[in-house]
């Protein structure tokens, strides 16, 4: 019996809850609120409900008088008689905000694209910045590796005419005696040092190729100067040998050159009786 009574209580409670939530909700349709909604959207600025009613020129609508009329607060009258402040009108604040948000989104996309481009370019530049990747640079592989190869093949401290790429030992001794080889060695050290720096230091790719180019120009000048000294010295030695051979055949055997004193004495002895 108690269980049946308990089940009945639960059934009645469930029935009451169902009855409460099952009732139809009445929709509130206030014309003044609807007019307010229209004013705050894009539809139109106006429809000032409640409307005024006059009898013999006297306002008889108490609702209008207290909302928009003479008894209304000043803020209500200023709102009714003021400018169109619809936020969703074509030039309304909300539409302006939406347009600004859209513009900012487009600007953000452009900035992101620019930053991504800068980042990718920075990564690419870093690949050429470090000295660890200089051997993989296309311009180095196509041109400068071949053009600068003679610098690495030339000895750091040449000790004979073969290493100096001279014609013979006599030319080497002549340049060494005059101090020309010492000056050429200093120029060679500068060229090799600049080449080593361009290959081992971390620097921008453009600056590295400028160093390659400067090194190549200095190396060409060095080779040209070495070739000129080689040719001039060889020509001088050839003339010297020719002159030596010519003098040895033109002078009689046993000829010994006289000193200036002997020449003067011979001339005075020859002309002493004529004056």
Summarize the structure.
The chain has 275 residues and is mainly alpha-helical.
Describe what this molecule looks like in 3D.
- This is DUF5045 domain-containing protein.
- Residues 1-22 form the signal peptide.
- Keywords: Signal.
- The structure is a single chain.
- With 275 residues, the chain is mostly helical.
- It has 3 domains: 29-88, no CATH class; 90-129; 133-248, no CATH class.
- It has 11 helices and 2 strands.
- The chain has helices at residues 2-21, 31-39, 62-67, 74-81, 93-129, 138-147, 149-153, 169-177, 180-200, 205-250, 260-271, and strands at residues 54-55, 58-59.
- A two-stranded antiparallel sheet has the order 1-2.
- A hairpin with a 2-residue loop joins strand 1 (54-55) and strand 2.
